[in-house]
């Protein structure tokens, strides 16, 4: 079986928000308050979210849904 390496997919803020059950505005807020580091930007100067960003975003959302305040 031959497998080829595919780099992790990078998504735009709207797709990241939809995946995490959030909004682009909320994600921008997480950047502003330091919960989510500013991601790399693509050639079009738009934010691109990778695997690590998505895991962190899901963690932030789950904590918020559970009513746990996150102080950074």
Automatic annotation (TrEMBL):
InterPro entries given in the database record: DNA-bd_dom_put_sf, MerR-type_HTH_dom, MerR_fam
UniProt superkingdom: Bacteria
Pfam families: MerR
Keyword entries, A-Z: DNA-binding
Residue ranges of every copy of the HTH merR-type domain listed in the record: 13-72
Keyword tRNA processing appears in the UniProt entry: no
Protein name as catalogued: MerR family transcriptional regulator
Provenance organism: Paractinoplanes hotanensis
């Amino acid at each position: 079986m031959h497998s080829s390496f595919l780099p992790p997919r990078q998504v735009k803020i709207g797709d990241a928000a939809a995946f995490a059950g959030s909004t682009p505005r909320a994600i921008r807020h997480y950047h502003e308050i330091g919960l989510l580091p500013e991601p790399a930007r693509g050639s079009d100067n738009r934010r691109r979210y990778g695997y690590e960003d998505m895991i962190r975003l899901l963690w932030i959302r789950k904590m918020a849904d559970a009513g746990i305040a996150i102080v950074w």
